[in-house]
UniProtKB/TrEMBL annotation:
Compositionally biased residues, Basic and acidic residues: 136-150
Main subcellular location: nucleus
Annotated RRM domain residues: 50-133
Protein name: RNA-binding region-containing protein 3
C-alpha cells in the first residue's frame, strides 16, 4: 500500500515512517536525569559537522530503528538529501554499540543532536555527539612524541 508523503518545514508533516516529535520528547531523559548518569559524565557535543556519532546503543537496536529516528531530519522529497542520509551501526568488534549517522547539513545534525541525545531506546539512553573527522592526528611533527631517548 503506497502512501502519499508530503514534507514541509512543519514538524507535524514528517512522514509516519519516522518517529514523531512527541514520541522523541516523551522518550528523552530530562537534563537533570542526564547529568546524574555516568554514561554522560564528561559529555561534550564536539564541533558541529553533518555527521553524528551515537554510542551507548542497546544490542537489540537495528539499523532500521536508527533510520526511523534520524530520518525525520531529512527532506524525504529531496533525492539529494535521501542520498546523503546514511546510518552505519556497528554490531560487533571494538565499535559494537556505536553508530554514525550522516545528515545532509550541519543544521539538520545540530537539531538531531539536540532532539535525540538522551533518547531512551531499548532501555538505554543514546549518547549523541558530532562525529570527529577521520583526519590524521597532527601530533606527528611533535619531536617529543614517538622518539626513544638513548
Amino acid at each position: 500500500m503506497a502512501q502519499q508523503e508530503e514534507v514541509s518545514d512543519e514538524d507535524d508533516d514528517i512522514p509516519s515512517e519516522f518517529i514523531s516529535r512527541r514520541e522523541l520528547e516523551k522518550g528523552r531523559l530530562s537534563r537533570d536525569e542526564i547529568k546524574r548518569m555516568s554514561v554522560f559524565k564528561n559529555y561534550e557535543p564536539g564541533e558541529p559537522t553533518c555527521r553524528l556519532y551515537v554510542k551507548n546503543i542497546a544490542k537489540q537496536v537495528e539499523e532500521k530503528d536508527l533510520k526511523n529516528i534520524y530520518g525525520r531530519y531529512i527532506d524525504i522529497a529531496s533525492e539529494a538529501e535521501r542520498n546523503m542520509f546514511d546510518v552505519i551501526l556497528m554490531k560487533e568488534g571494538r565499535m559494537k554499540g556505536q553508530a554514525f549517522v550522516g545528515l545532509p547539513n550541519e543544521k539538520s545534525a545540530e537539531k538531531a543532536l539536540r532532539d535525540t541525545n538522551g533518547y531512551v531506546l531499548h532501555d538505554k539512553p543514546l549518547v549523541v555527539q558530532f562525529a570527529r573527522s577521520a583526519k590524521p592526528k597532527q601530533d606527528t611533527n611533535d619531536p617529543k612524541k614517538g622518539q626513544k631517548k638513548r
